[in-house]
Specification:
The protein is of the alpha+beta class and 139 residues long. 39% of the residues lie in helices and 17% in strands. The protein has one domain: CBS-domain (Roll), CATH 3.10.580.10. The protein is built from 6 helices and 5 strands, in the order αβαββαααββα. β2 and β3 form a beta hairpin. The protein starts with 5 loop residues before the first helix and ends in a 7-residue tail after the last helix.
């Protein structure tokens, strides 16, 4: 068995918005799908930003009265920290820990989203491995 790669553990991220969408529509999508983020993609499907719960809280305090009327582009995180699908999973995990991010888009060479890593999904997979007994104690 080879080194686990990002592509082996990434999930598909369907929650996407346009940079010009209203913040309220991004929030409604996040609530409807019970997710902590949406990807912001341009008309060519290239990743241009990410809008997360952290962005929501941080920017809401700055512009309470007009916040819901802002565009996603005005409050998203950009540039976005991304990884390629061929990156070793251990490197991606180290990057997530070092940069303190919970959501990590996986993009191809053209900048198009091909997958998504989240702490939540990785923890669920890890928990399943523990329950199955497929993890062993280190020597």
């Amino acid at each position: 068995m080879g080194v686990p790669l990002v592509r082996d553990y990434m999930s598909q991220k369907r929650e996407r918005v346009d940079p010009q969408d209203a913040v309220i529509s991004a929030i409604e999508l996040m609530v409807e799908r019970d997710v902590g983020s949406v990807l912001v993609v341009d008309k060519d499907e290239r990743l241009v930003g990410i809008f997360t719960e952290r962005d929501l809280l941080r920017h809401y305090l700055e512009a309470q009265s007009k916040f819901l009327y802002l565009t996603v582009e005005q409050v998203m995180t950009s540039p976005v920290l991304t990884v390629p699908p061929s990156m070793p999973l251990s490197d991606a995990l180290a990057l997530m820990a070092e940069k303190d991010v919970r959501h990590l888009p996986v993009v191809d060479k053209q900048g198009k989203v091909v997958g998504y890593l989240t702490w939540k999904n990785l923890f669920q997979r890890f928990s399943a491995m523990v329950r199955e007994g497929s993890l062993t104690r280190p020597d």
